[in-house]
Each structure stands twice: as structure tokens, then as C-alpha cells.
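User: Could you go from structure to sequence for me? I need the amino acid at each position, not a summary. C-alpha cells:
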């Protein structure tokens, strides 16, 4: 499970990360937390888990390169980028990632209702491009397990699928794991819970039960 840490307070971010670290395999940070605390929060959080920087990078190759360099220098282990900007923009991110020995995840489709308007129709093309370009993984929607299944069919065992949309957006962890996701991404259902630790433990148990069923 990956914690989506979209809080905007440094102390809270550190407290929650420590609290749930036993149950999470990585922490995803993005604009909400970084814009309030600065890039330095990445190193502070890295003592609890590997860090995925969710900047959904979507610019020309040169700008993408500059963004990725800053993020990896700051200590992130992986970065999330958009694929719709084209192969050259994605290549720029992957080149920087390989220089730093880090990973790139590409958004194939998004989990919110608007995700079906423009992105979903090109999701399969983006997925194939991400494979060809040598991405480490894909971000695919837990709110649409059938789409995750389809993406898994296209990529086989090649890439890692991380899947947001569990809990607050209506997706179910066990459903999307059954559909072929490797990790679920969970934000509000954990960090807004009365006990983030208990909430994380419950989702982790659900995932474990699903994996036992499969094995
Ligand atoms: O809905 P949650 O609070 O569990 O958070 C989901 C996180 O995943 C959040 O950081 C959001 O920006 C990110 N995300 C999506 O929700 C959907 C996507 O398609 C891609 C990323």
C-alpha cells in the first residue's frame, strides 16, 4: 500500500507517516504538501518509506528534465509523469531517472469522473508508449478495476501498476488488487481517519486477504 500524503502541515505529515509506516510500502507526496513545506520534506519522510513524487509532470522535454533533476536531487525514489505530452517528453524523464537510478511512473488513466473524458480514450496508447519507453510503472484507476484489468492484459508482467481511488473516491482495495494492480494508493481514508494507523491496518489486512485468496 502507498500512502498519498496530501496534508499541508509538516508536523502532521511526519506524525502520520511514523504512525502508519508499518503498513505502507511507500509514501506519495505531491503539490499540496510540497508547496507548503518545500522539497526538503522528501528527505524528512524518506526515513519512513521510499518516496514517490506525484508531480504529474507534463511539459516539454527540457522542462521535464529540469523538474525531474530537482525531484531526484531532493531524494525522491520515483516520479509520476503524464504521458499525453508525448514520447519525447516522457523520454526526457526516463533519461534523468536512469542517470539517478530512480523510477518513472506514467499516468495511463485517471480515477476521477472527468478521467473518462479525454484521458481514458487514449489510455491504451499511453500504456503501450510507457512500456516501449522503459517506464517502471503505470498509475491506473482503482475506481475502474475493469480498466486496470485491461491495462494489465496489455502490459503482461512487465510494469508495476499503482492504483489510486481507493476509499474516498469509491474504489475498493481488494477489487483493484484482484484486477491486477500491484499497490493501491490511499490518501484521505487514512490521513483523515480518527486513527490513521487503524485505517491503514484495516486496508492492509484487506489486501493481504485478497493476496491469500489468489495464492
Ligand atoms: O482520493 P485519495 O485521498 O485516496 O487520494 C488519491 C491520491 O492519488 C491523490 O494524491 C491524488 O492526487 C492521486 N491520484 C488520483 O487520485 C487519481 C489519479 O488518476 C492519479 C493520482
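Assistant: Here is the amino acid at each position, in order:
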Amino acid at each position: 500500500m502507498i500512502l498519498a500524503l496530501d496534508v499541508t502541515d509538516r508536523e502532521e505529515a511526519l506524525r502520520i507517516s511514523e504512525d502508519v509506516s508499518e503498513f505502507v510500502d511507500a509514501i506519495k507526496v505531491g503539490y499540496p504538501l510540497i508547496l507548503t513545506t518545500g522539497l526538503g520534506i522528501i528527505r524528512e519522510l524518506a526515513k519512513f518509506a521510499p518516496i514517490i513524487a506525484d508531480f504529474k509532470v507534463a511539459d516539454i522535454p527540457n522542462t521535464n528534465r529540469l523538474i525531474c533533476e530537482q525531484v531526484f536531487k531532493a531524494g525522491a525514489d520515483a516520479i509520476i509523469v503524464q504521458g499525453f505530452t508525448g514520447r519525447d517528453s516522457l523520454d526526457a524523464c526516463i533519461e534523468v531517472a536512469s542517470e539517478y537510478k530512480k523510477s518513472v511512473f506514467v499516468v495511463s488513466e485517471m480515477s476521477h469522473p472527468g478521467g473518462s473524458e479525454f484521458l481514458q480514450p487514449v489510455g491504451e496508447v499511453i500504456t503501450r508508449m510507457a512500456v516501449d519507453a522503459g517506464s517502471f510503472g503505470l498509475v491506473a484507476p482503482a475506481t475502474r478495476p475493469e480498466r486496470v484489468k485491461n491495462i494489465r492484459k496489455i502490459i503482461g508482467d512487465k510494469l508495476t501498476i499503482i492504483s489510486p481511488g481507493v476509499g474516498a473516491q469509491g474504489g475498493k482495495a481488494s477489487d483493484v488488487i484482484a484486477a491486477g494492480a500491484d499497490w493501491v494508493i490511499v490518501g484521505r481514508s487514512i490521513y483523515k481517519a480518527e486513527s490513521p494507523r487503524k485505517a491503514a491496518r484495516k486496508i492492509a489486512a484487506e489486501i493481504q486477504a485478497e493476496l491469500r485468496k489468489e495464492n
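One structural detail worth keeping in mind: DSSP finds ten helices and eight strands in the chain.
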